[in-house]
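Figure S4 source data
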Amino acid sequence: MSTAPRILVIIPAFNEARSIGQVIGDIPAALVEEVVVVNNASTDETEANARAAGATVLREPRRGYGRACLRGIAYAREKNPDLVVFLDGDYSDHPEEMTDLVAPILRGEADFVVGSRMRGRREPGAMLPQALLGNRLACFLMRLLWGARYTDLGPFRAIRFADLLALGMEDETFGWTIEMQIKAVLAGLRYTEVPVSYRRRVGVSKITGTVSGTVKASAKILWTIAKYGIKARRVRRPVFEKSASGL
């Protein structure tokens, strides 16, 4: 990779008008080539505020976190960046920590990096009990089934673009993050985690902020684990390589 890698940021956003400008404004401008906000059927001023903050705005009219990410990837194919960074538009992540997030990839030590909120500084109340429990369970199951050494399903993540395309991402809703992590292990990517900070989001979470959202997300995550667990058994894959993190 060249000394000046081309980094594209993808932010899926549904009704994040109050926070999207802050998210874009805190991204290290010298680090990234382009910030792309995917307006996922918002009914507020998300799109206008994102444009005003200097982002490229795409539209994905079908609701779904994964659908918004897939729309961003389709656009990234035209740009062919070296790295893609994903983060949420609710200002719970700390975009200024992006430099630390991509560092293991730039040093040639990893292909895929997850920002771990479990290992970083979390503002009290930033992650609700159901989110903490769900993360622990999902990571436990990934370790049990594939030896994966993850501590979080954090949305703040970076990956080499060529590797991202090779994963063949498919999930259109709540299973997006865990699908990427499972497929990274199955593909033998060098993966690691870096601690990231996490604060109370602006507004109410569309997932853990409601009972129905929590149930739907939990069911989809468990279904995704089961889906790839069954596939792995069918093909009798060998023991996977250790992660770059050595966790």
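Figure S5 source data
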Amino acid sequence: MRRLLGSVRARATLGATLVVAVALVAAGAAVLLSLRSNLLGEAGTQAERSAREVAAELAVGTPYGELSLDVDDRPVQVVDEDGRLVAASEDLERISGTGVDAVKPAPAAPGDDGDGDDGDDVADGADGGGSDDDPDGSDDSGEPLEAGGIGERTTVSDGSATIDGDPEDYRFAAVPVQTPAGDGLTVYAGAPLSAEHGAVDTALTVMLIGFPLLLAVVGWVTWLVTGRALRPVEGIRREMAAITASEDLARRVPVPGTHDEVARLASTTNETLAALETSVERQRSFVADASHELRSPIASLRTQLEVAAAHPELLDLDGAVEDTVRLQRLAADLLLLARLDAGERPAEGRVGLAALAREEAAGRAGVSVRCEDAVAVAGSRGQLGRVLANLLDNAARHARSAVEVSVRRDGDRAVVAVADDGEGVPAADRERIFERFVRLDTARSRDDGGAGLGLAIARDVAVRHGGTLTVHDAPAGGALFELRLPCP
């Protein structure tokens, strides 16, 4: 069960089903309450209509014996001011909810003409509790009714009655009336609630049967839809698992043609795989090139040491020192590249480029410096000094006679330019020279040309500082390297 709920498909299905269930319960309760309220209101209206029909007959002086009390087999009571039953439906056997439990009016006393003038007849079983209306023949506003008047306001209540052996729930309406003789009466009439109960029970039954079926349909449809939506994700997962197992970074995950979030995920995953493949290939090439570059000075140094061990008088000390220095520089370059590849952030500090350029140019033959002293950037002084040193070393190897270093500000950028008067860099090779272990002059000896890492390191440091390093044609006809860095 826990594993099943760990599935996105299962959680989505469960969540959708729960939301729909809550909505259905709330809507069903609202429908039942509204239906019951409307049906109760309709029953109250029917009861009031029946009560007012009887009250209208009393208001014109109709005798109790001639009242229309048995219409539609509804319970009707006529109660006087003392709470005595003076008239009732003929088949009424039991009643509750009106305040008067009597169902048969008391026999008329001698001298009573049956027109409602005698108020001394006490109905059998009357509880004397009175009605909800005022017993003095007034309406609910407290104003006495005139002779032949009917109260404007109706009081409703719920109860039950048994008519001709058939018990049922009713809504009762009480209407006050004043006879022409001045007797204050209250007419109670009921309307059955069977329709309300039947409708509510039917609606509740439909909901109890229909809601579970609807929830089952919602759950089934959600399960199918989420399964279809997540099918490409499962395909991506399987392919990534296969790539991990085979270590074949040339493979790519399938991209669905839906142009949705899943398709964008697949595209991003393929872009990540491509970048990872490029990085791995670059690392392999770097290791191979580094091994190749290290082999020459190590082999030369070993040969000299072996010769010196056998014939000390033949030891080329200067050559051994030169190979050692070259090996040390190559190791330092490789270490710096490794740190840059690992994402090492440059130390934060304010670096004056004019002073840095003069410092790196000092002691170099044929190098002139032209600077604006106020130009400064944020970054690592050591790494930026390494960039200038590498650019000056590269320019010195290719210049005929002169190298010029200039520092200026161009908008929000600081520009450091190193120009030489050599042969320049062909346009087709201006990006390739920044690749690692690349030397355009393959015939040049390694001792003279270096390992081909200087410009690669310079560009990587420039990028880490948020800048750029590019090469153009110099005014003197050689190469012009421009380092652009953001000013703080």
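Residues 350-486 form a domain with the Heat Shock Protein 90 fold (CATH 3.30.565.10). The mean pLDDT is 83.
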